[in-house]
Design brief:
- The structure holds three protein chains of three kinds.
- Helices cover 72% and strands 1% of the residues of chain A.
- By secondary structure, chain A is mostly helical.
- Chain A has a domain at 35-280.
- In chain A, a hairpin with a 2-residue loop joins strand 1 and strand 2.
- In chain A, helix 12 packs parallel to helix 15.
- In chain B, helix 3 (103-110) packs parallel to helix 6 (155-167).
- The relative contact order of chain B is 0.18.
- By secondary structure, chain C is mostly helical.
- Chain C has one domain (15-234).
- Chain C contains eleven helices and two strands.
- Classes of the chains: A mainly alpha, B alpha/beta, C mainly alpha.
- Chains in contact: A-B, A-C, B-C.
- Chains B and C meet through loops of B and loops of C.
- Chain C: It is a multi-pass membrane protein.
- Chain C: It is found in: Cell membrane.
- Chain C: One of its GO terms (cellular component) is plasma membrane.
- Chain C: InterPro entries: ABC_transp_permease, ABC_UrtB_bac, BCAA_transport_permease.
Chain lengths: 377, 251, 308
């Protein structure tokens, strides 16, 4: 394991291939576009969950405010799309045509200054990546340079999520309030509400997710990945090995924030609106459970965990709405008490040794007996 | 020794060092000097402030007053990682290693290259790193266990691994807090041999309880009592000092 | 923004808002006291603390109903009995939760946080299934209704005064329990050095359970008091949990005095600003200030320099 040639091991490639097959082949051919769009929506949460694996699972930094970054990305995208949908022709029945409808309802007569730059798609894309990074940097630098971590960090990030939600809901003239920014139509003239657009966006989302996974594998396989594990374990030892520990925590927090924002932006594109209900305390902590169910140490686990929990949520809250909260609550408790390593833990204990064996036999010769039946169990 | 001039020929000079916690002076107006290539041992009863002195040198605890100079550079205003980069290594009382990583990775992380975020991302495990890790692993008797997860090592091996993690940084001053605590007799002997070997070209400051071990390694001994120096000199000299006998046996 | 008011009006506004702030302060203190014991003394994050409070509120609501319908003669004083019942109900649930959940997680604070969040979801759904999603209110006895006129323009409601008096009594009781009694001493001993406390003959498991139950019981009393000034719904507890945690952290987690001081500062700031700004902006500004200060001074307002 000490060869530094490629950061992708055979297991990683297999995991990537299996996920790609599921996302790009199995799901698109087996479910209709409505369900596929739903899967796409879930996958946007997976960006957050992957970020949490790096931040919380590897680095030991639990952020209960990832919804803030998801929201930042989502709102940036929504602002751009809303401006495109609010042309003077489309809004000529308003008392002030050319501004988003909710502003008109709230007696605003001109576009607020911070909306102006979102007329540019380039600026919007840059903002989706840079805004959350800057925000995470400020929070991270303030906290980690002062050696605040653990539960204090969790509480502060949760408070930030609460503050942002109250702010968005309170300032409805500028933000669309509790309903969020709705009625989004086109992206650069391309109607995102059609089935074909939904297919394209689903594949774009999946492609981005794969790219993010590869990027995360690179980070995790670099010395920085091992340092994260090291500082989760013995922070002082890392510090007394000559590292400025805070910088590494800030980096991983910013990295996770940017991933969340990408997820948020893709959410807006696929679902067609953004609202404070994806920003606050409740969604933020729910995203932690996606990561925990998948296994807090596995980025692939995070993707499957997200899909599984959301699938369960949709199924249960459709048929037994009463039971869903019990189920979700029990899931929080079970994942902590019984399965601290989540799905990935089960995989590692039960399936991984067999896959390894299978890969090994494949490596040693193409004629070696393939132990598929066991591996498939 | 009684020079109070700002610059000294000593590798480490501690002058008038004081730290108080809510009025309790854990270290009180301490003066201590470490020569080049010296094994200097601090002994003293529990609560004498031995570990606190190490904490003050490496920046883990901030001094209330006084100065700590390393090669005539003031350490008290530096952050921990800056002090490490000056060339001061610190081993903790309980073996402090990364249990989830292998022995190799433990040593590799301690290798002094790629210490910022970008450097860590682009760090390459090249020939220099691998050969240096092997060299150090051999010194600390772990060369056959490089791929083992560190959590599986014995207590004594963990202590050695941590010493190895410091050696790979090639510090000029190595500070060890009770390096043989919990070791078997044969491990102690090996450790004493190791310390005598690694002191070539560097100084070592040790806090230790085990008198037999101190006798084996110490060039000079400082006896600390209630945050102050009680006695200083060779092992034979401090052992004969009536004040020391009184503190250790008198109660 | 002061231009439209005369000085005496402004004085009355500040007095009335100040009083509203004092009621908010009382609720904050009652909530935060329980949390200060559980989080500050034991180091356990209990995200279901709000739901323990709501349990107390529902117990009070049930008592008010039962007494009103079956023993109306006692209606004037039912509240005291309800409060004691609320304390024991929440404390009993607390002890159960400690036994089933918390004790397995003392070394994993972040996991405690997630598990208790799960618990809070389950409790919320349980309240919704039992009491319905609608908010419920209790009927107050006559002597708690009405208000006292201090001047022509300043009136203070009696129920508010009652809640404040109650808060004072409970705060003093908690202080004596935690810092002047054997139980408090044992709790602090266990928190500071579990192994040593066990070695000197303290039953650490029992102390943990008692302390956790006590914190939850106080939350129950808080819920009981809460019914006198507002209505109760299944998710009402969640609305307060962030504020309460911020209060405890802001005050310096281990300091009861700090908890009270920060409750006071936050409640006064919020209620005074509320009159001039919209409620949401007042809250945003208050919380933002607290978070800002905590980023600059993470140890909170009151803290000790300790030897590590």
């Amino acid at each position: 394991m000490t060869n530094g040639k490629s950061f992708l091991s055979r297991q990683d490639l297999l995991a990537l291939a299996v996920l790609a097959a599921l996302l790009f082949i199995v799901l698109p051919v087996s479910v209709d576009i409505f369900r596929l769009n739903l899967v796409g929506k879930y996958l946007t949460y997976a960006f957050v969950a992957i970020g949490l694996v790096l931040c919380w699972g590897m680095g030991g930094i639990l952020s209960l405010g990832q919804g803030v970054f998801f929201g930042l990305g989502g709102y940036c995208m929504a602002m751009f799309l809303k401006l495109e949908a609010s042309t003077p022709e489309a809004t000529k029945i308003q008392s002030t045509p050319g501004i988003p409808d909710f502003m008109d309802w709230n007696q605003l007569t001109e576009l607020p200054w911070f909306w102006e730059p979102f007329k540019s798609f380039g600026f919007t894309l840059a903002a989706i990546l840079i805004l959350p990074a800057i925000f995470a940097f400020i929070v991270g630098a303030a906290m980690f340079k002062r050696r605040v971590g653990g539960v204090y960090f969790a509480i502060i990030t949760q408070a930030i999520a609460a503050i942002l939600t109250i702010l968005i809901i309170g300032q409805q003239g500028y933000t669309g309030g509790v309903n969020g920014i709705t009625d989004l139509r086109t992206l650069m003239g391309w109607d995102i509400r059609t089935d074909s657009a939904k297919y394209v966006l689903y594949f774009l989302n999946g492609g981005l997710l794969m790219a993010v996974l590869v990027l995360c594998l690179f980070v995790l396989k670099s010395k920085l990945g091992r340092l994260l594990v090291a500082l989760r374990d013995k922070e002082d030892r890392v510090r007394f090995s000559g590292y400025d520990v805070a910088n590494f925590k800030i980096f991983v927090f910013c990295f996770a924030a940017v991933l969340s924002a990408i997820g948020g932006a893709m959410f807006t594109l696929q679902v067609g609106f953004m609202s404070p209900s994806f920003v606050g305390i409740v969604p933020s902590i729910e995203m932690v459970i996606y990561c925990a169910v998948g296994g807090r140490l596995s980025i692939f686990g995070a993707v499957y965990g997200t899909l599984l929990v959301n699938w369960a949520k949709t199924t249960f809250s459709e048929t037994f709405p009463e039971l869903w909260l019990f189920g979700l609550g029990a899931l929080f408790i079970a994942v902590v008490l019984v399965f601290p390593n989540g799905l990935a833990g089960v995989y590692r204990a039960q399936v991984a040794p067999r896959v390894k064996k299978w890969l090994h036999t494949r490596k040693s010769g193409p004629d070696a007996p393939v132990q598929d039946p066991q591996a498939a169990e | 020794m009684n020079t109070l001039a700002n610059n000294t020929d000593f590798l480490l000079s501690i002058e008038n060092l004081t730290v108080s916690f809510d009025g309790f002076k854990a270290v009180n107006d301490l003066n201590l000097y470490v020569d080049e290539n010296e094994i200097h041992v601090i002994i003293g009863p529990n609560g004498a402030g031995k570990t606190t002195v190490l904490d003050l040198i490496c920046g883990r605890t901030k001094a209330t007053d006084g100065s700590v100079k390393f090669r005539n550079r003031e350490l008290t205003s530096m952050k921990e990682h800056e002090i490490v980069r000056e060339g001061v290594g610190r081993k903790f009382q309980n073996p402090s290693i990364y249990e989830d990583l292998t022995v190799f990775e433990n040593l590799e992380i301690s290798f002094p290259r790629g210490r910022n975020v970008f450097g860590a991302l682009t760090f390459k495990r090249d020939e220099e790193v691998v050969s240096r890790v092997r060299e150090i692993a051999e010194m600390v008797f772990l060369d056959t266990l490089l791929d083992m997860q560190a959590a599986l090592l014995s207590h004594g091996q963990k202590q050695w691994l941590e010493i190895g993690m410091l050696l790979i940084q090639d510090p000029e001053l190595l500070m060890l807090d009770e390096p043989v605590a919990g070791m078997s007799v044969s491990e102690r002997k090996q450790t004493a041999k190791l310390l005598n070997e690694i002191t070539k070209g560097r100084s070592v400051l040790v806090v230790e309880h085990d008198m037999k071990f101190v006798e084996d390694i110490a060039h000079r001994v400082t006896v600390l009592h209630q945050g102050k120096i009680l006695s200083e000199g060779s092992m034979a000299k401090v052992q004969a000092d009536p004040k020391v006998i009184d503190v250790y046996l008198g109660h | 923004m002061f231009a439209d008011y005369t000085w005496s009006e402004l004085g009355s506004i500040f007095a009335m808002q100040g009083f509203a702030g004092l009621i908010l302060f009382s609720v904050f203190v009652l909530m935060a006291l329980g949390l200060a014991i559980i989080f500050g003394q034991m180091g356990v994050i209990n995200m279901a603390h709000g739901e323990f409070m709501i349990l107390g509120a529902y117990v009070t609501y049930l008592c008010s109903h039962i007494v009103e319908n079956y023993v109306p003669s006692l209606f004037g004083v039912y509240f005291f009995g309800a409060m004691i019942l609320a304390f024991f109900a929440s404390a009993a649930l607390g002890a159960l939760v400690e036994w089933a959940l918390i004790r397995h997680l003392y070394k994993r604070p972040l996991d405690t946080l997630l598990a208790t969040w799960g618990l809070s979801l389950m409790l919320q759904q349980a309240y919704r299934s039992i009491f319905g999603a609608r908010e419920v209110g209790v009927t107050l006895p006559d002597w708690l209704l009405g208000s006292v006129a201090l001047t022509d323009t300043i009136e203070v409601p009696i129920n508010g005064l009652f809640v404040m008096a109650l808060t004072l009594v409970i705060a003093v009781a908690v202080y004596f329990l935690m810092f002047r009694s054997r139980m408090g001493m044992q709790t602090r001993a266990v928190v500071q050095n579990r192994v040593m406390a066990g070695a000197v003959g303290i039953n650490t498991e029992r102390v943990d359970r008692k302390t956790f139950a006590l914190g939850c019981g106080i939350a129950g009393i808080a819920g009981s008091a809460f019914t006198m000034i507002g209505s109760t719904g299944p998710t009402a507890g969640q609305l307060y949990i962030v504020d309460t945690f911020l209060i405890v952290v802001f005050g310096g987690a281990a300091s009861l005095l700090g908890t009270i001081a920060s409750s006071f500062a936050i409640s006064q700031a919020q209620s005074t600003m509320e009159f001039f700004l919209s409620g949401s902006m007042a809250k945003v500004l208050t919380l933002l200030t607290v978070v800002g200060i905590l980023m600059l001074r993470p140890e909170g307002l009151f803290s000790l320099k300790i030897r590590r």
